[in-house]
Amino acid sequence: MNAKQQTAEILENSGTEYVSGSFIAEKLGITRAAVWKCIKQLETEGYEIESTKKGYRLGNKSDALSRSLILKYLGEEASYYNIEVFDVIDSTNTYLKKKAPEYLAQAGDPKTAPWYAVIADRQDLGRGRMGRSFCSPAGSGIYLSVLFKPQLLAQQAVSMTTAAAVAACRAIEECTDSKPQIKWVNDIYIDGKKTCGILTEASVDLEGGGLDWAVIGIGFNVYMPEGGFPEEIKDIAGAVASERERDLRSRIAATFLSQLHAICKDLKGSGFSKEYKERCFLIGKDINVIRDGEMIPATVYDLDDELHLLVRYENGTTEALNSGEVSVRVKK
User: Fold this and answer.
1) Strand partners, 81
2) What is the CATH number of the domain that holds 33?
3) 3-class DSSP assignment, residue 123
4) Are residues 34 and 116 in the same domain?
5) From 55, 189, 191, 213, which residue has the greatest number of CB atoms within 10 Å?
6) Which are the contacts of 327, defined by CB distance < 8 A and separation ≥ 6?
7) How far apart are CA 298 and CA 25, in angstroms?
8) Is 46 helix (H, G, I), strand (E, B) or coil?
9) What are the C-alpha distances in Å from 220 to residues 136, 264, 273?
10) DSSP state, 265?
């Protein structure tokens, strides 16, 4: 770790106690001026730092994404992951897809090897489903991807996306008072606004029919970004929390990683399908199935055991959707 990162860790571990600049300087072997420079850099990265004659401490609304805090909140479960945290990255999914072959070749037994998690404060080229860009501003969200080798056939890959949706809901509920719901297949909504999106990508073993590796990416809108959401999404996007809270982003990231591992280490036996179904708000709704640019009216009448969306079209025919996009029809 560099001096800035070490300074951040000292402040994070000090709780509500002040830490003097001279203590930090002596511990890190740097000058007081260098400590002050580190403090100023940390403030630009989202740390709220109170400064008095007693020294420095983090404020109640300090909420920078931090590897040391994520590891702290993971506790013993930190051993499940190899974690990297970036101030800025092009795309967490893209980064891990490039790393996947080499990392998994070196990781050994996929059943026991640590999963690889990459978390960023900002993405410059964040991606959503259908090739869309994903709004990823600094200081307000969590942009996180996980690489692992699932024990699944390719046709079962949708279960990873649905598992991530349940893990995200659990993380939000554990860390806040919000009540998230799932819009099939990959979006999390709070109070009618989209707050999270999930993008799962994988490499298929063409001979065996299984997956060589999978990357599950998720973006949380934890807070409203400065200046608000872009014009094109301002009417549909929402945030998990209305006010900044101490370490909230690191706590949500850690809880999501914990819950994701708990579910995905045994997707066939984890029994999360019932919970997904209970959280899905589309059952009984009139929707449009979006296919090749066409809006096809339908009604959702259930989810099956594999979490396919069961829809009935206006002509009476039914279909089990295992992928694709749907939108809720607004009644006129």
Assistant:
1) 115
2) 1.10.10.10
3) strand
4) no
5) 213
6) 287, 288, 290, 295
7) 65
8) coil
9) 9, 19, 22
10) T
Burial bucket for residue 309 (CB in 10 Å: 0-12, 13-18, 19+): buried
Token pair in block for residue 311: 């829809």
Q: Residue 214: name the closest of 249, 143, 265, 255 by CA.
A: 265
Residue 7 and residue 137 in one domain: no
- By residue range, what is the domain housing residue 184? 67-279
**Could you tell me which residues come within 8 angstroms of residue 45 by beta carbon, excluding any fewer than 6 positions away?**
64, 87, 121
CATH of the domain at 308: 2.30.30
Length of the chain: 332
Beta bridge partners of residue 85, listed in sequence order = 119
- What whole-number distance in Å separates Cα of residue 119 and Cα of residue 144? 4
Q: Are the CB atoms for 93 and 76 separated by under 8 Å?
A: no
Dist CA 46 CA 156 (whole Å): 40
Query: In the Cβ-directed half-sphere of 193, how many Cα atoms lie within 13 Å?
Result: 18
Token pair 């206006």 is at which residue?
A: 314
Clarify whether residues 210 and 312 are in a common domain: no
Phi and psi at residue 326, to the nearest 5°: -135, 155
Same domain as 224, residue 85: yes
Taking CA 185 as the corner, what is the angle to CA 180 and CA 187, rounded to the nearest 5 degrees?
40
Give rounded-to-5 percent helix, strand, coil for the chain: 35, 30, 40
User: pLDDT tens digits for the chain (332 residues)?
Assistant: 789 989 999 999 888 899 999 999 999 999 999 999 999 989 888 789 999 999 999 999 899 899 999 999 999 999 999 999 998 999 999 999 999 988 888 877 777 889 999 999 988 877 666 556 677 778 899 999 999 988 887 777 888 999 999 999 999 999 999 999 999 999 999 999 999 999 999 988 777 778 889 999 999 999 998 888 888 888 999 999 999 999 999 999 999 999 999 998 877 766 899 999 999 999 999 999 999 889 999 999 999 988 999 999 999 999 999 888 899 986 65
Regarding whether 139 and 223 lie in a shared domain, the answer is: yes
